[in-house]
Amino acid sequence: MKDIYYQISGEGFPIVFLHGNGEDHHIFDQAVLQLSKQYQCICIDSRYHGQSIHAGELSYQQMAKDVMGVVDELKLEAYDIIGFSDGAIIALLLAQCDLRLKHVVSIGANTKPCYIKSFYRLTFYLQMLCLAVFALYQKKARLTLKLYRLMLTQPQIEYQQLHQIRIPVLILAGEFDMIKEYDTKQIAKALPYGIQKIIKHGNHFLLRDSFLETMKEICLFLDACHQEESHENMSGTPINNR
User: PANTHER family attached here (predicted)?
Assistant: First the structure.
């Protein structure tokens, strides 16, 4: 897709990496350095981020469609996702509709803006107020304002929607995450094959500030999923029931 930028590293089972609000694919550089030894790592810049197009609809649903477009272009029959924050939200949306998606690592997802802790929401609103003046004449400020607005109005995912996700999902969050613990627990509870792990002393930015422990959990999850698939393929048992 010419509108959506992505880069590929390594060989093996494909993993799509989806970053958070206001970031780009480089937040995964250290993780990709490790995982590309075993997997094909496909790092995408979401719409309105990085080197991807800064035009069109700004929504998590559109970003999910963009990811599916990249998967179509690469002709992937199966893939996993590691998503952080906004990227984790997009992963949960894709898990509801794309049968090619087999496993998800969700880092710091939320189902609704109200589950961002009040302190952080207030901070974002105050920053939007400050940006409003600069947005009159500064392109970067206008973009940041749009991205904050996205985060404070979307997503609107109901827990019952997550019941239809019939694949393994690792739900990661920090002990001191900006997402309310209630939402993290309810996401894991709603998922038929959800596994919740809370990183002790961790914040929202687990791959930055709790890298080793976070990567340990990710690698354990991916290894278990793919070892089980290999065993089931050898035994002739269907991989999943979707």
Answer: AB HYDROLASE-1 DOMAIN-CONTAINING PROTEIN, HYDROLASE, ALPHA/BETA FOLD FAMILY PROTEIN
Q: Evaluate whether residue 242 is within a structural domain.
A: no
Question: Which tokens belong to 232?
Answer: 């089931």
Same structural domain for residues 187 and 75?
A: yes
Q: Is 168 exposed, middle or buried (0-12, 13-18, 19+ CB in 10 A)?
A: buried
Please give the residue range of the domain that contains residue 141.
Answer: 118-154
The CATH number for 229's domain is 3.40.50.1820
Q: Domain check: are 76 and 100 in the same one?
A: yes
Which token pair is 27? 């937040």
Q: Are residues 81 and 127 in the same domain?
A: no
User: 3-state DSSP call for residue 101?
Assistant: strand
